[in-house]
Specification:
Blueprint: H1 2-18, H2 24-46, H3 55-58, H4 67-70
Helix pairs in contact: 1-2
């Protein structure tokens, strides 16, 4: 279970970081990734799985994905 969560989070984060916010569509896509990653991390915490994930995922701040939009 942890391997699946780790793999999907790594993939989603990588894809989100590749998005170049050039228009409203890309901005919406990035918010979708942000929401999905946040939800998975919250659920991992709720189910006691978060502490079993690697440090870079435990400490990942989904809001950092939105820096390009809010700065």
């Amino acid at each position: 279970m942890e391997n699946y969560i780790e793999d999907i989070l790594n993939q989603l984060i990588e894809e989100a970081k590749e998005i170049k916010v050039i228009d409203e569509f890309e901005k919406g896509k990035l918010f979708g990734y942000y929401f999905s990653i946040s939800k998975i991390l919250t659920q991992a915490l709720s189910f006691g799985v978060l502490e079993k994930l690697p440090k870079h995922l435990r400490e990942f701040n989904p809001e950092s994905l939105l820096n390009e939009i809010t700065s």
